[in-house]
Design brief:
This protein is α/β, with parallel strands linked by helices. The protein has helices at 20-25, 37-40, 55-60, 66-77, 89-101, 114-127, 139-147, 223-235, 239-244, 255-263, 275-283, 312-323, 325-333, 356-372, and strands spanning 79-84, 106-111, 134-137, 151-152, 167-169, 175-190, 216-218, 249-251, 269-274, 288-291, 296-306, 347-348. The chain contains 14 helices and twelve strands. The strands form two sheets. Strands 1, 2, 3, 4, 5, 6, 9, 10, 11 and 12 form a ten-stranded mixed β-sheet that branches.
Length: 377
């Protein structure tokens, strides 16, 4: 199994021109040190850890009364604002589960593409008007966010349940994010419109004659660009030219939106569709199916606490919840892949091993390649 190695994702350059000014103003991250191992598992004669009073202390606190302290404080705050690149019913399900466990805390949730989230966070920081408390973003979005020093390093009792390579490590035993799910992109199709013989099982199969004029790429967000990045890497630079002969088109919708069109019979299939969405719809009786094309582009969604969270206790409590057993249950119910699972195919994590600058440049390059070879509608 291939997982995201977050130590390789730490960027060192300036991000895109859109956020260059914010980068120059951002200070070098100085994570708050967590309690030492001796204080977190202290002898009976030792003094208990000091009670936290601010975001950095709440995030790093490892006392046995952590959850009780956070819940009491978060209930006084009364609300939490959560942004995520998760899409569909999982957002509402996570909110409902959290509010059932902590009824005194209202969750305002927002499903947002990383390309929209990052500029918003930049604007908030420049105006010093903060709304986001916690966020769950894909690996490529986290790569950009990391350059702007917008994340509060934190500890969680759930960290022990995750492999080391699922954690983007800060200092003092803290983390910037933990990968809580994989969104696996592959070929999704309408089973009534494509016969089994036409369904690709490799990227090379996308050139099957039966698929000519029947494929659509997602043009919203970075899914399409990520696909073409994998195609160039695994099939060669000339594969996009070959794919042009298949007369594929582009729809300016997300992978989730494109699957809706596939379900409705308006589109036969697409290699920019996520497994979790297909499984969710198929379970409801939709005529859709999904197959992996190896290496599968795996968006590794990670949970973080916003550095300037206006509701610090609620932000940390929600993050603990998502990473814990309750959050895992919700993610599993929507078929998001567990980072600790074993897969029958290789995974390719977008942005792995790149700086933010390099990845931003490549995404633009791959997106342009996809659009240059598409058939106009």
């Amino acid at each position: 199994m291939i997982r995201a190695t977050w130590r390789k994702l730490m960027p060192v350059g300036i991000v895109a021109a859109m956020i260059a000014s914010a980068c120059s103003a951002a200070a070098t991250p100085q994570p708050t040190a967590a309690p030492t191992a001796a204080s977190s598992v202290a002898p009976a004669t030792s003094a208990p850890p000091a009670k936290p009073t601010n975001l950095a202390e709440y995030a790093a606190y490892q006392g046995s009364d952590r959850t009780a302290i956070l819940e009491a404080c978060a209930t006084k705050e009364g609300q939490v604002f959560w942004s995520s690149e998760l899409a569909g019913g999982v957002i509402t399900a996570m909110k409902t589960a959290f509010q059932k466990k902590y009824p005194g805390i209202a969750v305002s949730e927002q499903s947002v593409a990383g390309s929209d989230f990052v500029p918003r966070m930049v604007q908030e920081r420049q105006a010093k008007k903060y709304t986001v408390d916690a966020f769950e973003m894909s690996s490529d979005s986290q790569l950009l966010i990391a350059t702007l020093d917008m994340r509060q390093p934190y500890w969680s009792p759930a960290l022990a349940n995750y492999q080391d390579d699922a954690k983007e490590v800060a200092t003092g035993g803290l983390v910037y994010q933990v990968v809580d799910r994989y969104s696996l992109m592959g070929f999704g199709y309408n089973t009534k419109l494509l016969p089994a013989s036409a369904v690709p099982t490799t990227y090379a199969d996308l050139l099957k004659p039966e698929l000519k004029g029947k494929m659509v790429m997602s043009g919203s967000g970075s899914s399409g660009a990520q696909l073409f990045g994998v195609l160039v890497t695994t099939q060669g630079a000339d594969f996009a030219t070959k794919l042009k002969a298949q007369n594929y088109t582009i729809q300016q919708v997300s992978g989730r939106g494109l699957l809706d069109l596939i379900t409705a019979g308006e589109v036969a299939g697409s290699p920019t569709i996520y497994q979790s969405h297909v499984k969710t719809d198929a379970a409801k009786g939709a005529p859709v199916a999904w197959v992996p094309l190896s290496p599968v582009s795996a968006n590794a969604g990670g949970s973080s606490v916003a550095k300037d969270a206006p509701h610090p206790c609620a932000a940390v409590l929600l993050t603990d919840f998502i990473l814990g057993a309750d959050g895992r249950t919700v993610l599993d119910s929507f078929f998001y892949a567990n980072p600790g699972a074993k897969f029958d195919y290789k995974l390719s994590v977008p942005g792995a091993g790149m700086t933010a600058d390099a990845y931003n440049t490549k995404i633009k390059e791959w997106d342009a390649l996809m659009r240059a070879n598409a058939t106009a509608k």
